[in-house]
Amino acid sequence: MGTLTDKVTCSNSNLRAGSPDLAAVKMIDIEQVATALGIDVLPGHRATCLHPERHKHHDAHPSVHIDRKRNKWKCFVCNDPAASNIDLVMEALHVDFPQAIRWICERFEVPPAKPGRPIGAKNKWQCRPLHAGWTSDPIDVIVRSGVMAKLTPAHWKVLQVLVTLREVDTNSLELSYNLIQHYTGLSSRSTISEAVRALSEEWHMIMVVPGPYIDGKRFTNRYILTFDDPRFIALRDQAYSAMRAQWERDSVFRGEERLRRKKECIALLSNTGRSVH
Ligand SMILES: [Zn+2]
After folding, report:
1. Separation of 103 CA from ligand 1 center, angstroms?
2. Ligand 1: distance of its center to the CA of 79 in Å?
3. CB contact at 8 A, 83 and 74
């Protein structure tokens, strides 16, 4: 049981970069995790309780049943809720959740989670401007970076259609103006043409490969999405810095405004002779 004292030092921030995929961690065989912890897994998927002091004869007849299907650990005498492999590590090593994840990741192969989201990140965190790392979803990046705010409604509509309908393997698509009109609801072909020009020449988010002329007829253009173009990346980062600076100014302003209103309120109340706490 030497590994039980193998304490892990790790903080939440260590997990931010290349966070492991939590769902994949939970799928790691709990019997293998128990074995790595130095716990003897007995035939019939049984084991001795981690709290033998709660048992008669120190759990001489092992009371833990390992549920293979649910990948859970349960002592029927203690009757605590069934434990996941992460719970088991936390319990056995007296470590917290991130430390348990870290311990597992050091011993088992775990694929990384999507970039940009620390373990356990909740939606609340996502509402604020992102400070590090962009997801692989272009619309997500365009919204969070503040680029969307700089696009006209027509640019935004055309871009969303191209991103949504793109073939993921080639990151491109062929689409006629008729279909762009159909999907965006933009009736004017010149509006679409202007949006395509802005997205390619000003923003460098798309590259247009004109379709060939055959028998005097223009074949459909191919649009390649180029969110990795350094020129777009520079514009994205610029928009993000501007948005973040604005957000911070607003935040200071809101704080000052609250203080000002509080002072006014106090002045008003003391003028009317009421005490203020
Ligand atoms: Zn027990």
Report:
1. 23
2. 7
3. yes
* Residue 90 CA, ligand 1 centroid: distance in Å: 16
- Residue 116 contacts residue 16 (beta carbons within 8 Å): no
For the record, the structure tokens of 153 come out as: 């409604």
Is residue 56 in a domain?
Answer: yes
What CATH number has the domain bearing residue 148?
1.10.10.10
Gap from CA of 65 to ligand 1 centroid (Å): 10
What integer pLDDT is reported at residue 3 of this predicted model?
Answer: 40
Kindly state whether residues 144 and 102 are assigned to the same domain: no
Domain housing 61: 2-107
Is position 44 within any domain? yes
E strand or H helix at 223: strand 222-225
Ligand 1 centroid distance, CA of 99 (Å): 24
Task: Give the tens place of pLDDT for each residue, 125-164.
Answer: 333 444 445 677 888 889 988 899 999 999 999 999 999 9
The CA-based dihedral angle spanning residues 57, 58, 60, 66, taken in that order and rounded to the nearest 10 degrees: 140
Rounded to the nearest angstrom, the distance between the alpha carbon of 97 and the centre of ligand 1 is 21
Q: Could you tell me where the beta strands, DSSP code E, fall in 60-183? A: 64-67, 72-75, 172-174
The Å distance, Cα 148 to ligand 1 centre, comes to: 56
Give burial (CB, 10 Å; 0-12/13-18/19+) of 200: middle
Better-scored residue on pLDDT, 134 or 48: 48
Residue-level length of the chain: 277
Dist. CA 35 → ligand 1 center (Å):
18
Is 67 among the domain residues?
yes
Domain count, the chain: 2
Q: Find the 85 Cα to ligand 1 centroid distance in Å.
A: 16
